[in-house]
Amino acid sequence: MARKSKKQSSGGTPATVALAAAGTAFTLHSYDHDPAVPSYGAEAAEALGVDPGRVFKTLVAAVDEELTVAVVPVSATLDLKALAAAVGGKRAAMADPAAAERTTGYVRGGISPLGQRKRLRTAVDASALDHPAICVSAGRRGLEVELSPADLVALTGAVTAPIARF
Question: Among 76, 93, 137, 149, whose CB has the most other CB atoms within 10 angstroms?
Fold first, then answer.
């Protein structure tokens, strides 16, 4: 019986293990992460040569005190009011980074919407559906996974809504 940690030690992350277990088609992209870069998402887009509108960042917010994942393009910012409305809440604020890390099992800058320690309700910006494939964090800095937005939505149980400000 293979344990999750053994799969991860062979190079996988909880996100890639979840994708493989679901039989989902994906492409893994790695790049050399520079810790001095202020924007992890912009760094990923540039390093991979991908339009920033196709690279999505994973943010954790508290909507009515419940941690919620928001997936928005790196070229945009999260509209907290729109996020709250998308998940049926009233108020949203960015989550405490330590709480986000503890709950998801990932470090800031490497939080993936996939394979989280505790599955959180998730909203994906509707612009993701404009692309045949998007990139999201694969669970660590310097590692992105490319997959169809429909697969991301299905695997996370996400709602799609216009939650980004461009």
Answer: 137
